[in-house]
Structure formats: C-alpha cells, structure tokens
Amino acid sequence: MSIKQERARAEKLARQAAPASPAAWRAWFDGSAHPNPGRIGIGVLLSGPAGERVEISRRAGQGSSGDAEYLALIAALEMAVELGVPELLVYGDSQVVVQDVLLAPQAGAKALQEHRARVAQLMAALALVHVRWVPRHRNGEADRLSQQAVHAGAA
C-alpha cells in the first residue's frame, strides 16, 4: 500500500471514529436471505433529528446473506442521498460488511466487489457518513423489516 493510500485510509478511519453531531440522521440496515443463498429481503430504518422516520422493507431478488446485507446498506445510503442528508450515522449487525466498508475494501470478497463499489460511490455523495457495527439485538427494527420483506408473498 502506498503512503498516499495509507494516509487516505487513516483519514477515513479517523472520520469514522469521530462522534456524530446531534443533527446527524441515523440509519439501521439489515438483509436476509432465505435459504442462504435464496430470496433476499432488505430492511432499513432512517431516523432524522427532527423526528423524521423512513422505513424500507422490500424484496431484492436472489443472492447470499452478504448480498442481502450490502443491498440493505445501499438502500439506506441511496435514501440518504435522495433526502439530502448532511450527516449520517449508519448501524448494521453484519461484521463482514461493516469491516469491509471501514477497513479493507480491496481485500474483501470478490463476489461482493460490485456492491462495495456502489457503497463507496454513495458514501462519497454524502458530506459525512459514519458506519458502525451493532449487535443483532440492537438492530431489531431493521431485522423486522428485512424478515417482513423476505417472507412477503412466500408460499
């Protein structure tokens, strides 16, 4: 890794570690694949500083749990861009996706490379994004929305 790449990585990590301001929007994302791989459902909850609430619960085709988690994160970021959110604090319970986004996107799974590139593009379109891992029990609303989506219309 070059010095320039190392410096950019260090700056990105410093921004991620900084506390979010009270004006930041919050987003929780989760993806489900049943079976794995199988039908994908994504769930996202965005919450604004003035009490705004946006829920996303939808089927997202076929794929693995990694695809599902990334597609949920992408949906959260797309909505934030659409809403013109100035600062976003994103929570997800997928350690693989959160670590991939924060630390080593170039070393991530080849199968998720396209999703990773889209996340990077969307994060660049927002002024400030913090991505944080949370345990599954602290991601209940997003999980509920993803489960609702994956089972909608299932026979």
How far from one another are the termini? Answer: 50 Å
* Classification by helices and strands: alpha/beta
Q: What sequence of helices (H) and strands (E) makes up the elements? A: HEEEHEHHEH
Number of strands: 5
* Largest sheet: number of strands, sense, barrel closure: 5 strands, mixed
The CATH topology label is: Nucleotidyltransferase, domain 5
CATH superfamily: Ribonuclease H-like superfamily/Ribonuclease H
The CATH architecture name reads: 2-Layer Sandwich
Spans of 5+ residues with little confidence (pLDDT < 50)? none
CATH class: Alpha Beta
Helix share, percent? 40-55%
Strand order of the largest sheet: 3-2-1-4-5
The chain-level mean pLDDT equals 88
Oligomer: single chain
Number of domains: 1
- Per DSSP, the total helix count is 5
What is the overall silhouette?
globular
Q: Rg, please?
A: 15 Å
Fraction in beta strands = 25-35%
Explain how this protein is built.
The chain is α/β, with parallel strands linked by helices and 155 residues long. It has one domain: Ribonuclease H-like superfamily/Ribonuclease H (Nucleotidyltransferase, domain 5), CATH 3.30.420.10. It is 43% helix and 28% strand. The protein is built from five helices and five strands, in the order αβββαβααβα. It has helices spanning 3-17, 65-83, 95-102, 113-125, 140-151; strands at 25-34, 38-47, 53-63, 87-92, 128-133. It has a five-stranded mixed sheet. A hairpin with a 3-residue loop joins strand 1 and strand 2. The longest helix is centred in the middle third of the chain and has 19 residues, at 65-83. The radius of gyration is 15 Å and the shape is globular. The N and C termini lie far apart (50 Å).
